[in-house]
Amino acid sequence: WHLLFCRYSRGDPIRELAQYFPPLLDAWEEAERLGQSVWTEQQQYTRHAWAVNLDHYIVCFWLVGLALALEIPDDQWRRLLALIGNEGEDELLDRVIASRQPERTIGRKLCHPKPYQRLLDAVKTPQDKQAQMLFTFVDKWYKELNRPPKKGLSEQTAMYDRPYWYTLGNRQLEDSGYFGRWCVEAVAAAKAFGIDDSLCQGHEHYPGDLLRPDGPSTRLKPAGSDASSPSRS
User: Residue 220 phi/psi, 5° resolution?
Assistant: First the structure.
């Protein structure tokens, strides 16, 4: 998925991105198979549970959003959900998944209210208010992922205060592991629930052209950038 994001960030055609899903699923399934003999039961829990693993929750959300936007085939979708698991654990992500898998059990809580309460509110609000609320979520998303440290750890406490990739690219783009800072969660909600994302188009963190594979791009060029470059980052 890092490669998929890097390809998106550099401006590759949207319709070419779906080709990375089959090898992504193959690698993930093999990792899970090998992990059965390596990780303890507690390690398996902390690696997979959305409630305590913010990074895993976000990556699952991103992959669901990409799968919806790119409209991957049903067999790949089923494999993805089997790997994601956590059915009934999070009201927001379960709702998004249920847009394509109606029998999905919907959770009654939100694993990470900051920043995702704003997106859940946008999903549940009347249609005439959704566009503004979606924009507010996108605008606050990156800042609110810089969450304050928590005291102590428990089964209900996330292992990390902010995503591991949060500061990648701050010093230099080369050799940093930077792949962009894309709020695919908002794209997922827009796709799943038909939310108007016009206010989000052009926002530095909103990958809206995932929903417009034939263009034109919704990205705004940074000041001083080469107008001929296709890069979205």
Answer: -95, 140
Over range 217-233, report the average pLDDT. 53
> Which of 140-144, 162-166, 226-230 has the least mean pLDDT?
226-230
pTM confidence score: 0.90
CB 146 within 8 A of CB 167: no
Q: What is the dihedral of CA 221, 222, 224, 226, to 10 degrees?
A: -40
Report the distance separating Cα 190 and Cα 227, nearest Å.
28
Please state the separation of Cα 138 from the chain's center in Å.
12
Residue 54 has pLDDT above 80, yes or no: yes
State the number of CA atoms in the 13 A half-sphere of 156 facing the CB: 3
User: What value, to the nearest 5°, has the Cα angle with vertex 188 and ends 187 and 194?
Assistant: 85
How many whole angstroms separate alpha carbon 226 and alpha carbon 158? 41
Tokens 């009201």 sit at which residue?
A: 91
| 24-42 residue pLDDT tens | 999 999 999 999 999 999 9
Q: Return the axis-axis angle of helices 91-98 and 184-193, rounded to nearest 10°.
A: 50
Residue among 204, 230, 189 nearest 16 (CA): 230
| DSSP assignment letter at 204 | T
Q: Report d(CA 146, CA 164) in Å as an integer.
A: 11
- Residue 149: band (very low, low, confident or very high) from pLDDT cuts 50, 70, 90: low
DSSP-derived letter for residue 221 is P
